[in-house]
Design a protein that fits this description.
Blueprint lengths: L3 H5 L3 H22 L1 E2 L6 E2 L1 H11 L2 H16 L12 H5 L3 H20 L6 H27 L1 H8 L1 H30 L1
Helix pairs in contact: 2-3, 2-4, 3-4, 3-6, 3-9, 4-6, 6-7, 7-8, 7-9
Length: 188
């Protein structure tokens, strides 16, 4: 009798990996459409999706997911806020934030390895806040190149501080809840 792995072949683990990445891209797409449409940069839930993926996926899948999302959007798929896509979005006012997703993923890897984001709300909050500020600073640099530093701070950084901290807090509670459920599942 054939076992399940023989039936599906050696590609079975890859199917799972690809499915995880596709689900992450779908999460980012959905989060990007939930927005407060302020100009020139809307406040979205993308950062929650990015942080969730960084802190819950293994490093390889997190990088693959974030890169796939950004690449699909850059190639024209309507992945970004307001169902927009294309190089014009990457080169526009929001491009620094979107590229900051990649930078934040790479910056978070050493922190993630040292701190278990499931073990405490404070650790999850600190990691989420670090990732949030990496994205915000990346966006600030790009936006300041386009509109000047003062204007970029005024419209692309300061309005994002409180929502960013709020999102980090919410995500910290979610991550702690996942950690609790993981512990309970192991004991059962």
């Amino acid at each position: 009798m054939l076992q399940k792995n023989q039936l599906l072949g050696s590609s079975y683990p890859y199917v799972i990996d690809i499915s995880i990445v596709v689900l992450g891209v779908a999460l980012l797409f959905g989060c990007s459409q939930i927005a407060i449409p302020i100009q020139p940069v809307p406040i979205t839930l993308q950062t929650i999706g990015v942080i969730f993926i960084i802190l819950t996926y293994d490093t390889k899948k997190a990088v693959q997911t974030i890169l796939a999302y950004v690449l699909l959007g850059a190639l024209g798929a309507p992945m970004f806020s307001g169902y927009r896509g294309g190089l014009a979005v990457i080169l526009g006012p929001t491009g620094g934030y979107i590229l900051g997703f990649i930078l934040a993923t790479l910056v978070a890897i050493p922190f993630k390895k040292r701190l278990d984001s499931y073990s405490s709300i404070l650790k999850a909050f600190v990691l989420s806040t670090i990732i949030t500020f990496v994205i915000m600073i990346s966006g600030l640099f790009w936006l300041s190149y386009q509109v000047g530093l003062t204007k970029a701070l005024e419209v692309g950084f300061i309005p994002f501080i409180i929502p960013g901290l709020f999102k980090s807090g919410i995500l910290s509670l979610v991550l702690r809840g996942i950690g609790y459920l993981k512990k309970r599942a192991i004991k059962i």
